[in-house]
Amino acid sequence: MGSNGTFLDNEEAPTYAPSIPVPNVQELVRKDPFQVPQRYVRKVEDRPKDTDTSYLSSFIPVIDLSLLLMGNNEELNKLDLACREWGFFQVVNHGVAKQVSQKMKDAAAEFFKLSLEEKNKYAMPSDDIQGYGHAYVVSEDQILDWSDALILLVHPSHYRKLKFWPNSPKGIQEIIKEYSNAIRKVATELFQSFSLIMGMDKEALLGLHKQLVQAYRVNYYPPCSKPDQVLGVSPHSDTSTITILMQEDDVCGLQIKNNNEWVPVNPIPDALVVNVGDVFEIWSNGKYKSVEQRAVANYSKARISYASFLFPHDEVEIEPPSHMVDSKTKQQLYKKVRYGEYLRSSMNEKMEGKAHTQMAKIEG
Ligand code: OGA
């Protein structure tokens, strides 16, 4: 931080947590599509069940961002309900040009088609989370996720470590920047409405971040011959303020916890999926829910998903503002924590539901 309390433009990119190197899943499947090593097989109780809950997907709220921007009260109420009851919603009329999303999808698909040797030019080192590889692996006996990922810090621009940004296919770096800028605009517009439903001025939520940091994670889920025994991503809640996910229109995978049931988030063409992260839950003193999510694997098709995480600067101390604490019961559910500490402590554990949120909780 600078002496005048602002964050410096030449501040170095933060480093995050170490992760143990593990095999590349796409390569494993390429060598033998029928092998599912024991390290990926979940305990019976953690496996996806075959009860069909997909009809519940249609209850997940759909929010029209263009209505929010016009100050439509009904849409604002819908947003409030979505964040309270689901912690998830899909956004339509979000303003991200179809051509930009399509370019992103085409470039990512090309990147994952490259040989392992090519992709490994951007391999994630064991002491960081940027690059191509796997994060959140903290022990040799941990059950592994059926996926590989490319993880980059995209904003502020001086946090970018370009050695991890692919050079191939041609133009992919520009596409990542263009897509991320478009998503950042959606996030800041959503923040205005979130501020309003929290009873604050339009710009207040953005202001609380001091510096709005943005990370990008492109997940590659190879097909799996035993999709009922593995998970693409372990159950977890996000450590961000919000996450904005673009999924493919024709392959399902994302599931969210609602009323103790795993509900699939079936893709709506061109919509973005937004979820409340832990920071938003803390700032709202638990009014808005950062719910657990996971991804399941697919028998025949690979799936790529594009997650943008928006979160505060490391030095920001997060706690519920006094007006969010119920004036009758005065029950404050979260104590003050430095965000950088919260984030790193969560990364040093394996992803396990909401276990990592414990460090910010006030014991009741
Ligand atoms: C993630 C995540 C879900 C998905 O990247 O953290 O939860 O559908 N992704 O890929």
TrEMBL record:
InterPro entries assigned to the protein according to its UniProt record, in alphabetical order: DIOX_N, IPNS-like_FE2OG_OXY, IPNS-like_sf, Oxoglu/Fe-dep_dioxygenase_dom, Plant_2OG-oxidoreductases
Record key words, sorted: Iron, Metal-binding, Oxidoreductase
Domain Fe2OG dioxygenase: 212-312
One MF term in the entry's GO annotations: oxidoreductase activity
Cross-referenced Gene3D superfamilies: B-lactam Antibiotic, Isopenicillin N Synthase, Chain
Statement: the UniProt record of this protein carries the keyword Cytoplasm: no
SUPFAM superfamilies named among the record's database cross-references: Clavaminate synthase-like (SSF51197)
Transmembrane segments: none
Family as reported in the entry's similarity comment: Belongs to the iron/ascorbate-dependent oxidoreductase family.
Protein name, per record: Fe2OG dioxygenase domain-containing protein
Protein source organism: Gossypium tomentosum (Hawaiian cotton)
